[in-house]
Amino acid sequence: MAAILVYSEQADTALELVGAARGLAPQLGLTVSAAVLGAEAAGTAAAAAALAAHGAAPVYVCTEPALEGLDTAVVTQALAHIVEQAGASVVLLGSTRRGRELGGRLAQRLGAGCVTDAISLTVEDGLLVAGRYNLGGATVQRETIATPVQVVAVMPKIFEAGEPGGAGAGEAVVAVSAELAAPAVKVVDRRPKEGQAVDLAAAARIVGVGRGLAKRDDLPLTEALAAALGAELACTKSLADFGWMADDRIVGLSGAKTAPDMYLAVGISGQVQHTVGIAQARIIAVVNQDKDAPMFALADYGVVGDLYKLVPALVERLKTL
Amino acid sequence: MSEHPLRIVVLVKQVPDTANVTGEAMKDDGTVNRAALPAIFNPEDLNALEAGLRLKDRHGGRVTVLTMGPPSAAQVLRESLFRGADEVVLLSDRAFAGADTLATSYALARALDHLGAFDLVLCGRQAIDGDTAQVGPQTAEKLGLPQITCVSRIVEVVPPGAAGGAPASVTATRSVEDGAETLCAPLPALLTITGEANEPRPPSVKLVMTYKHAIAEALTGYDDSYLDPDSDEAEVCMVGRDGRPVCRARIVLWDAAAIEAERELVGLRGSPTRVKKIESVVLAGGEARLIEPTDEGVRALVRELIEEHILG
User: Fold this and answer.
1) Nearest to A89 by CA among A155, A142, A146, A47
2) Stated pTM of the model
3) Residue B202: exposure state from Cβ atoms within 10 A (0-12, 13-18, ≥19)
4) Contact B193, B125 (CB under 8 A)
5) Which residues in chain A have their CB less than 8 angstroms from residue B308's CB?
6) What does DSSP assign to residue A276?
């Protein structure tokens, strides 16, 4: 029987994809398998065990030395090999930065169609349909893929990992040997993210900052507001592009999809690529100078005014609580 | 052996400006009227062009800009010339219309083959109309090139024939979800560039004066209905190799035959992804409660947030 093959270099995402695949498999008449790649035996074994426990059967494990560093071109070769061995007709990848470049290379190698950044997976008329935002988040486009193998990179945190178990839980782990060319791209330096990792998707309160903030030096103003509210600080893509804040602070199409109790938007105009990231917010409050800013259309509370006066006033008021 | 000038190809795309999708751009049925959105140079492709021009400034060489699109896409090539590109190529053919990322990367790879030897292919990380981030990696795989995606800084390029016999390479930094990495790839290589990488230069007044009259406008009567993904009718103004160029002089025009592309692999026919349905995204809040920008208003807002159990 043909299979859905799941792979992500991020362990959490791989488990989510197995959860998604288990939902789709009966409708597509496919089994659920997974791949784990890496040069290091202990780590890959643990990852394979977790995937198997969540219902992937079998889990293909490849630990060729060329996979050290997980160069995308080498991962592509290994996965193409496993796709053939597994008889996979659907490949689910995580739509991380590495996952998106892998999706492209793998699809090209397999002559397959590829959809990235999928936010939904459904089966209609026996076909897999992947939904993704298009035109900067203004529309959702639902696409099918007409090739024998379909490659879909799915956004992290869209699907639940699900409980351990499922058909064939804990079944076979298959060791795969493949002839892989050594990576052409060398890792010169790799450093983990500086500072504390922020998880905007899990934040209960968020203060989002946009281009209404005139300069980088004014950031402490909004940091004070976030601190007073016990909120995480977030931003639009523009501010990250300016280098004012790190990429993991972006909310929207190119960043986090959040679901806070409150999103306070400060100086954010409200372009769709930002607002798709706050669709699940319970309360949206907006501070903006421009009364015509699209952001106000989403607001539960709107204040039209100068953020340089309103933010300090808010901080003062919050301090009295 | 002396250092060779770099041969750089930049892949660019003309896109609808999705940053400001307003009410006027929405059709009655909730879909986006792409024709109502201004066509712009894809922002991160401008960063790729800038990266190429800076490498040329530093090492010498030649920057070729390549795009695929309808005749009107010549505008982004013109804007590339205004910024200092040496050579621009427009891939335009009715047969290319409706291409998804697989068909697009096939055509671009064919065109790169026809350009001859190159050291670096640069493109934007992703285009703001589809945000797929696929065409770079797919083109790299098609050509068997090493790639570095999402580049925030090009650290160093060692051109072919560098002193001391160092192998030709590019070193670049990028950020990924769990950190930052610096990677080194042998040349030729493909890089995708992010908006963080640089500040694109404005058009040079002198180059605008040089090229603005040297380049003709796209043929009138061009029908862009193929841009509607719902339409199977691929209506793009047909321009052959037969001496009826879209643009004179500096813009090289290639059709499918010119790059020896197989008809089955380009355009809609070469595109396995099919759009089944397009839904507009409607994000509507409740009726916003407007609060006065005064101290009294600020107090009222905080009170509301307490009542909503957000605070306190």
Assistant:
1) A146
2) 0.81
3) exposed
4) yes
5) 262, 283
6) G
Domains and CATH numbers, chain A: 3-175 (3.40.50.620), 200-319 (3.40.50.1220)
Strand B169-176 and strand A205-209: pairing?
Answer: unpaired
| Facing residue for A136 by CB, picked from B128, B140, B277 | B128
CA distance A22 to A25: 5
Non-local (6+) Cβ contacts of A217 within 8 A are none
Rounded to whole angstroms, the Cα distance separating B112 from B9 reads 8
Cβ-contact A205, A261 below 8 angstroms = yes
Residue B216's pLDDT is 37
Flag whether pLDDT at B165 surpasses 70: yes
Considering Cα of B190, then B194, then B199, then B200, what sign does the dihedral take? positive
Long-range contacts made by residues A256-259, C-beta under 8 angstroms, separation at least 24? A256/A200, A256/A201, A257/A155, A257/A157, A257/A201, A258/A200, A258/A201, A258/A203, A258/A206, A258/A234, A259/A201
Query: Could you tell me which of A112, A129, A13 has the C-alpha nearest to residue B270?
Result: A112
User: What tokens does A84 get?
Assistant: 């053939």
Closest CA relative to residue A12, chosen from A73, A82, A101, A96: A96
Residue A171: the pLDDT is 64
Listed in sequence order, the residues at least 6 apart from B206 whose beta carbon sits closer than 8 Å to its beta carbon are none
| Under 8 Å between Cβ of A272 and A299 | no
Residue for token digits 């796709």? A83
B26, two tokens: 């929405």
Cβ-in-10-Å burial (0-12, 13-18, 19+) of A104 comes to buried
pLDDT, average across residues B82-103: 89
Best residue in B13, B24, B102, B289 for a mutation probing chain A (most A CBs within 10 Å): B102
- Domain B6-270 has what CATH class? alpha beta
Residue B13 has pLDDT above 90, yes or no: yes
Q: Is A195 left (phi over 0), alpha (psi -120 to 50) or beta?
A: left
For residue B228, what are its two tokens?
């509607």
- Residues in B closer than 8 angstroms to A104, CB to CB, are 101, 105, 133-138, 140-141
